[in-house]
Structures are given as structure tokens and as C-alpha cells.
Design a protein that fits this description.
By secondary structure, this protein is of the alpha/beta class. The protein has 11 helices and 14 strands. The chain folds into 2 domains: 155 residues, no CATH class; 196 residues, Rossmann fold. Helix 4 runs parallel beside helix 5 and helix 4 packs across helix 10.
Length: 385
């Protein structure tokens, strides 16, 4: 039976009709809203998803786990579960009130409004590519199958997608849990590929011009002048977004790849993969410690990608980036003020980009990357065990 709401007023393409608080002249977009309407009935332009797995973003889960870690160092998973349930019940969405972030979900399309432009049909198994922080969500099973000790959350309930939402059909050839992990961070490798590709294209153009002018010596200097293939530094290189970013940078023409990890355990995981030319152990929050580690392998680098989900990495990343270089922040723990003021205080001529999680074609690119790069796939599959 079609349950679409046809008498509740027009639907907004960006979901304003689902915002309950604030209202009136103070109304905001769903992501910034205090509370959303998560009713099952959909407007003609909406899609309802029957959820089976939520994937909490790393910054959000880390905050919840640390909050409920006891004096013995053990996380109280039950308390984490109860807090997630309380957030969803109170807000009609999963948005951590401390980090402001949410995550994403996997589910099955249950109903498609006749005016939906998303191209989905009932029965499609999909991953949402918009944050849970703006997605109307209701949980019906009390998260009874989740122990509260991991980011992936088995769940029953429903979610609603707007006209401007994004979702991707889960590929049949990959484990759905693997697909969920990849799609959760698929914006990172796509943006890295774009930025590194721009550097590599400039380097190739400069090399051709130099060759034509019989001045090849001018093509071997620092890449800040655009004359050599870029060097790329990834903070958190053994993580999900970090490993995909390394693979994307390599494919897009990076000359030298440096991965920073916090400990020997992660270094031992990453070194055999060959994803990075250099794997160094350093605290990404330590300005001088990170700089020394990067300089030991030929840094600073032209492009720095920040994929660690802890605060305080802004100034270290700036120091580790060459003048005229680019920093891409993919961490929800990033502080705009710390980044902007830090660059100013260090007289750093760097371009700083905030990875917003969306690049056209990002999901398809990330899935193809995981298919053709056995090293990255092995790292992801290791997380399933």
C-alpha cells in the first residue's frame, strides 16, 4: 500500500519539511536542526529505507566510547548503546551532540515516492551517502543485537531520504560490511585523486615545456613550483580513509608517498602492503615530532591528507606541508579556527581544503579502487574479522 503523505504540505528538496525544531523563522537545514520528523509515511519525493546496519563515524564512536570507559579501561558497551538510542529517540536522527557527526547506513528500499529523482526501486539494497546527522531515523529493535563495542551497529527501523539525498546500490560481488566501510569514507580517495591529479598534470606539462625548451634542469626542482610529481603525506595511513587515500594518490601520479601511523602495530599492518614508500611512527598532534618524522624521509610534502579522528592535528599538518602545498582535512575533529590561525601564525602559504564527503562519482570510484587494489582490500577485509 502506498503510504506517501499527500496532504501534509509540499516537500522541500533539502528536507526542511522534516525539521521540527527549530521552526518558523528560525528553521534550519536538517543537519543543523535540533529535532527531525522521522515518521514512516513519506512525501511523494522521498524514499523510505528499512535499515539493517548503521555505521557510526569514527569521531562520534570514539567520543561515546571514551565517555563510557570505566576506570579499568573497559568500555561499557551497554551505556554506549543506551546513549545512541536516547539520541535517536530525542532528535529523530543520529547526531552526536558533542562531535556533531553521525555516520551512514545500509538497508533495503521499502518505498519510493512517485516523484523521487534518486533512481531507486523497492527492494534495492543500498548504502546512504549522506550523514545520519541529517537523515530522519527511527530504531525499532532497541539495538538488541549490538554490544556497543564497535562502529557497525546491527539495527532495525527505518530512515528517510530527501530529493537531494544520495544513495548507492550495494554491489553484489562484495561483502556488504566491506561496502559499508568503503562507502563511509568514499569522499576521501575521490578528492585526493582530484587534487593529486591536478599536481601531476601540472608537473607533466612543465616537463614537456622544459623538454621543448631544452631546459630540463628546471624541471627537477621543488614541486611547489609545479615542476615535479607531487609528494603526498597521509596522517592515519593505516585507517580506512587513509589507506584508500594512499592508493588514490599513487594511481593519480604521486611520486613519493609517506604514511604516518601512531604505533608499531599499525606500521606492521601497512608496511607489507606497499601502499606507502615510507611508513613513519609519530604523534600527529605533535608539531615538532611530526615535522621531524616527515623530514627524516624527505619532507615536507606537497599534499597532506589528514585522516585521524583526534583533535589537535591542524598545526602539525601545516608544518609538515611544503610552502605552496595543499592540506586536505578529512577528520571531523578538525577545528577551522586552529587551522586558519595556525597557518597565519606560521606564515604558511598553504591551501587548506575541508573534505565534505561528496565528490561526483565518489562511491563508484572507491568501490573500483577496492576491487583493483588487493593491498587496500586486504586491509579492509582484516577489519571484518
Amino acid at each position: 500500500m502506498n503510504q506517501s503523505v499527500t496532504s501534509a504540505g509540499p516537500a522541500s528538496p533539502v528536507g526542511l519539511h522534516r525539521v521540527l525544531e527549530p521552526s518558523g523563522d528560525a528553521i534550519t537545514l536538517p543537519q543543523a536542526a535540533r529535532r527531525l520528523d522521522a515518521r514512516r509515511e513519506i512525501w511523494p519525493s522521498e524514499v523510505r529505507i528499512e535499515i539493517d546496519t548503521l555505521n557510526l563515524d569514527a569521531a562520534s564512536y570514539r567520543q561515546l566510547a571514551e565517555k563510557h570507559r570505566g576506570g579499568d579501561g573497559v568500555v561499557d558497551g551497554g551505556a554506549v548503546r543506551e546513549e545512541v538510542l536516547a539520541i535517536v529517540a530525542e532528535r529523530g536522527k543520529m547526531q552526536n551532540p558533542v562531535t556533531g557527526s553521525g555516520g551512514m547506513l545500509i538497508g533495503t528500499v521499502e518505498e519510493v515516492g512517485p516523484d523521487s529523482p534518486l533512481g531507486l526501486t523497492a527492494g534495492n539494497r543500498v548504502a546512504t551517502l549522506v550523514s545520519l546527522s541529517l537523515t530522519p531515523l527511527a530504531i525499532t529493535d532497541g539495538l538488541a543485537r549490538w554490544d556497543g563495542l564497535s562502529e557497525q551497529v546491527p539495527a532495525a527501523g527505518h530512515a528517510v531520504l530527501f530529493e537531494r539525498s544520495i544513495a548507492a546500490v550495494i554491489p553484489a560481488d562484495l561483502d556488504p560490511r566491506l561496502s559499508l566501510m568503503v562507502m563511509d569514507v568514499c569522499g576521501a580517495p575521490a578528492l585526493v585523486a582530484r587534487i593529486v591529479g591536478e599536481y601531476a598534470a601540472r608537473a607533466a606539462s612543465s616537463a614537456r615545456a622544459a623538454s621543448s625548451a631544452r631546459a630540463a634542469s628546471s624541471a627537477g626542482s621543488a614541486s611547489s613550483a609545479g615542476s615535479a610529481a607531487p609528494s603526498v603525506l597521509v596522517l592515519g595511513g593505516a585507517g580506512k580513509s587513509g589507506s584508500l587515500s594512499l592508493a588514490a594518490a599513487r594511481e593519480s601520479g604521486a611520486e613519493r608517498l609517506v604514511a604516518v601511523v601512531p604505533n608499531e602495530r599499525e606500521a606492521a599492518l601497512l608496511r607489507p602492503t606497499g601502499l606507502a614508500d615510507h611508513v613513519v611512527i609519530a604523534d600527529a598532534r605533535s608539531p615538532m615530532g611530526l615535522l621531524a618524522a616527515v623530514e627524516s624521509v624527505g619532507g615536507p610534502c606537497d599534499v597532506t591528507v589528514v585522516c585521524v579522528d583526534v583533535p589537535g592535528c591542524e598545526q602539525p599538518a601545516i608544518l609538515a606541508t611544503a610552502q605552496g602545498g595543499t592540506i586536505i582535512f578529512f577528520s571531523m575533529a578538525t577545528s577551522f579556527a586552529a587551522a586558519a590561525l595556525g597557518a597565519e601564525g606560521l606564515a604558511a602559504d598553504v591551501r587548506m581544503l575541508v573534505g565534505n564527503g561528496y565528490v561526483p562519482g565518489h562511491a563508484a570510484y572507491a568501490m573500483e579502487l577496492i576491487r583493483r587494489n588487493a593491498a587496500v582490500r586486504a586491509l579492509f577485509e582484516g577489519r571484518l574479522d
